[in-house]
Amino acid sequence: MGCLRIIRRMPHDAHDDHPHSLLPPDPALRVRALETILTGKGLIDPAALDAIIDTYQHRIGPQNGARVVARAWADPAFRARLLADADPVIAEMGLYGRQGEHIVAVENTDTVHNIVVCTLCSCYPWPLLGIPPGWYKSDAYRARVVREPRKVLADFGLTLPQDMAVRVWDSTAEVRYLVIPMRPAGTEGWDEEALMRCVTRDSMIGTGVAARPEAGS
Ligand code: FE
Fold first, then answer.
1. How many CA atoms within 13 Å lie on the side-chain side of 213?
2. Which of 123, 171, 198, 203 is catalytic?
3. pTM for the complete prediction?
């Protein structure tokens, strides 16, 4: 019983005024403990860890995918190569990386809208889109998008014409998909940087569409 009392007084409760309550919450504490042990044993290099964290916080994100899309809009030869075999094209742009070893680009058209899911877990093209959003990993999205994609899209505020086909792509550990959304009207002659601002993360998953930013934004 004494043991049980101690467990109950463990410092995870924010209302506990025991001095241990200053410790970080449980998962963070475990991570820190692991990091300390692994560093002490010389198995990891803290500087390398910092570099990885910096990469995911600052360098990897939807802006990478947006650059690919913007270039595909602006350069028909690039788009053709991307659609035929995305991997070498992505690698040329320096965007090849973990969780994105094999990318397939699929293109939205006047008649086809593509949407991406991972029904099994949460496979996602990290080097192009960053860390997946919470809803992408949810049971509800993963189950419903296959059965009723139009209803799921409506929940995202996107209503497609009835005669537009919807294609659902199921990601796996081997294959990750990038949707090339349709280029918004009124962007003729825009350079790559300007075009990138039309490309949202959701438009590259297929739960949204690309949109021309309002003037001045
Ligand atoms: Fe998965």
1. 12
2. 123
3. 0.78
